[in-house]
Amino acid sequence: MNSLAATSTAHVAATGVAVDPDLAAILDSSTDATFHLDSAGVVTWRNRAARRMLGRIDGDLVGAPFVDALHPPDAVRFAKVLVQAGAGARIDDDLQLQLRRTDDQVVPVVLTLAPTSAPGEGGGWWVVAFDLTERRESQRTLAESERRVRRSEALAGTGTFVVDFGASMVQWSEGMYAIFGVDPAEFFPSFSAHLDLIHPDDQDLVRAALAEVLAGRTPAELDHRARHPDGSTVWVFLAIEPTRDPDGRVIGASGVCQDVSVRTRAEATAREALDRERAASEELRRLDRAKEEFLATVSHELRTPLTAILGFSSLLRATPTEHALLLEPIERNAYDMHQMVERLLDYSRLEAGRVMIEPRSVGLAEQVRSVQGQLDSALAGRTVEVDVPDDLVVWADPDALQRILVNLIGNAAKYSEPPGIIRVCAGPGEQGTVVSVADDGPGIAAEHQSEIFERFFRVPGSTRAKRGTGVGLAIVRQYVELHGGRVWVDSEPGQGSTFRFGVANGDGR
Ligand code: ADP
Fold this sequence. Notes:
Blueprint: H1 2-15, H2 21-28, E1 33-37, E2 43-46, H3 48-54, H4 72-86, E3 95-100, E4 106-115, E5 125-131, H5 133-156, E6 158-164, E7 169-172, H6 174-180, H7 191-196, H8 200-214, E8 220-227, E9 233-244, E10 250-259, H9 261-318, H10 324-351, E11 360-363, H11 364-374, E12 383-387, E13 393-396, H12 398-414, E14 421-429, E15 432-439, H13 472-482, E16 487-491, E17 497-503
Parallel strand pairs: 12-14
Antiparallel strand pairs: 1-2, 1-5, 3-4, 4-5, 6-7, 6-10, 8-9, 9-10, 11-13, 14-15, 15-17, 16-17
Helix pairs in contact: 9-10, 10-13, 11-12, 12-13
Bound molecules: adenosine-5'-diphosphate.
């Protein structure tokens, strides 16, 4: 501006009010509004940008005092500045005023004022007005976006920082001060001050990550603890990456911190709960295994003396004795116990997954007859009606099939009273053959009909009076399922029960 002033000074002095056409052409091409005022502050010339800025047509302002173009409150201020500058006072570099357009809109400008001759010599003035509208607008937008960033940082508990090696400068956003619990008025962020706020046990971790980033190797992410000046500790997530110059050299770093104490605490609680649960379920499994092993051992050990009791009592029966009558309860009880031990053994083998079935073609009627023989004393006083064709062949493991029938026919006998009728039938069904065992006992209420197949479940009420362990039907279900079939019951209290299971036909279909 000073050289411009010097050039034009001579020219204006020579011409009075006119401006050299070359200079006018240069000034007309500028986007800043430029005015030439005489020593009294009257406009003698203005460039095109000035006319655009003020919305005036040619001649409007030329010949009028410049203050007419100013917003009235600023006119007085400008007039004063002009008088002081005319008396040789220093001109303020940053004269922010408002111009008034012809449509009464106000344009914020910064004015630069330069004399056309040496101060005090009574020359004129060059006035250049730089339109601040856009700058103000971008300042407003910037302030608004900064406000938004601050708000989201506060909401998310995040903060950002920038490290500039060249300028040895560290900048923190507001969120950083909140995360590290320090007062922005008192804390001066620097590299070492930042590290000092990190928990001593985590400082090496953070230093190592920073070293990696500063060596330009990789962005880093990690969780570390921070110590607040009040002694409390918070968990902070830190993500940091290098910043580079256009040649790719690392010139600093920028990063994000987030207070993750709540998340970390919740994760730790969930982890502890999970660990506790795992330990508890492992302990349960261990106890379960111990129980199963115990059950298997006890059942096995009981079986040997029971077999001996049953064997010797049948020998005694063959030997005429005056105490023959006493033999019957001994045999019956030993037999019941034997059945129970067999069930427990079955159960523990099935639970341990040690049962392998070997299905083959088996005559069903023959199997039923064999089971009737085994249950001879249990069936005493009952009529067993068997409606199974002699030539009906099913695809099953014979031992497993017998265990199924022993349990179902045994239950039918156990839970009905003599003289009851037990019907064993077989007919075609969805899985080949459906075998049914029906009794005229007490029946089973609908709500218990699926539970009875669960291990250890016994229907509350009268049937509890019968001896039992609650594993018979669970065994039946497992054996049937090993054959790929299913077992179910149709029953109504007081109407007897019919248990049915499906088994494939003898040819494996
Ligand atoms: P347990 O007979 O040893 O109790 P089960 O698993 O064989 O065990 O049977 C479970 C329960 O189902 C029995 O306790 C009984 O309440 C009921 N139940 C089984 N079969 C019959 C039946 N034929 N009639 C009535 N209730 C039965």
